[in-house]
C-alpha cells in the first residue's frame, strides 16, 4: 500500500434524486454494496449529505472481501453507479477540474465580478448579469432581519469586561460568577468579540446559540483560537457496521475517519492547554452519537464547556438563560470609564487572583468606604506637607500624592453616595 493511497481526505458529498425525494436509502445501498467507508449525515429536504473518503489520486477508500482496504474504485466510477440508479452524486473535484470551472465562470461573469469590485458601481449597472434590472424586484429589507444570537462567555474575568462588552455591543450584559469562573450573558445581532485583559482571564469560551441553525463555540487562550460545532456531526451514521469489520486496522481507520471528520481533535490540540482541558470529554461532545458521542443537542454543548472545568451551575445559567445576576447596560464611554475607575482593582482583577494581598486589601477597603476615604485624607495631608519642603524631589512627590489622593477621594465619595 503506497503512501499516496494511505493519505486520503474526507469529502462532503451530496446526493440528489431527479424526482426530488429522499435518496438516502438508495445511496446507502450503493455504498454498502461497494463497501465504501462512508457515513450518512441525513436529508435536508433537497439533498442527502454523505462523508466519503477519497485519496489524492481520486480513489475511493473501501473494503475488499477480506475487510482490507482497497483503492481500485474511482470517484468517477462511483458517480456512474449513482447515475445508473437515477441519482446524482456531487463529489469533490480534482484541482484541474476546479481550474476549468474557474475559467468558465471568469469568461461568463468576469465583467460582473469587476463591477462588484468597484465601490462606485451601482446596482442597476449589474442588469444582465443575473441581477434584477428594477430595484423594486428586490425583496424588502425587513424580510432579511437578522435575529439576535444568544451569547454566553465563560472565563476568569471580573465584572470590568461585562461593562466594556455592554458598551461595545450596545446591549445589556448579565454577569454571574461561581468560584473562579464568570459568565457574561447577552444577545446581539451584530458581530461581537470577547474582550480580555490578559492570560489570567483565559480561556474565554464563547458559546453562540442562534434560534435557527447550529450552535458554535469559540475558545480563545494564549493568542490561539479554536472553532467548534458540537452538533454538526451529531446524527452522522456509519454506512457499514464497524463492529463487524474483521480486520482491526481497517475498523480503526473507519472509526478515526468518522471521529476526526470535523477537525475537532486538531483544533483542541492547537489550543495547547494541556491538562487544563479534558480532551476525551471534549471529543465525545463533538463525536457522532452513533459512535458513543454525548447524546442530546444542549447536553453536548454543556459537556464541551464542562471539559474546560466550568462549574455546572454556571453552564446552566448561560445555556438556559434563567439565573439572574448583575446587569450592565450601555452608558456611553465617559460613564463607562468612570464606572471602571470606581470599580477599581476589585473588579479588574482576574478571579483566580482575588486572594492575592493587593486585591484583598482593595476588597477590604471597598467594604469600608469611610476607612478608605480616611486613608485618602491622610495621603492628601502627607502630600501637602511634602510639597512645602525645600527638596525639589520631595515637593514633586508631594504633588503626585495630592493628585492621587484627590482622585481617590472623589472615588470614595462616589462609592459612599451610591451604597
Question: What do these coordinates show?
Answer:
Keywords: Membrane, Transmembrane, Transmembrane helix. The chain has 419 residues and is an alpha+beta fold. It folds into 4 domains: 90 residues, Alpha-Beta Plaits (2-Layer Sandwich), CATH 3.30.70; 48 residues, no CATH class; 180 residues, no CATH class; 51 residues. The chain is 42% helix and 18% strand. It contains 14 helices and 14 strands. The strands form 3 sheets. The protein has a 7-stranded antiparallel beta sheet, sandwiched between helices. The chain has a 5-stranded antiparallel beta sheet with strand order 6-1-3-2-13. α5 packs antiparallel against α11 and α8 packs antiparallel against α9. The relative contact order is 0.09. The N terminus is likely disordered.
Q: Compute the gyration radius: what is it?
A: 30 Å
- Counting H and I runs of at least 4 residues, what is the number of helices? 14
Number of domains: 4
| Strand-residue proportion | 15-25%
Strand order of the largest sheet: 12-11-10-7-9-8-14
Number of strands: 14
Structural class call reads alpha+beta
Termini, distance in Å? 75 Å
Low-confidence stretches: 1-5, 94-98, 126-133, 135-139
Features:
single chain; 419 residues; alpha+beta; Alpha-Beta Plaits; seven-stranded antiparallel beta sheet; 14 helices; disordered N terminus
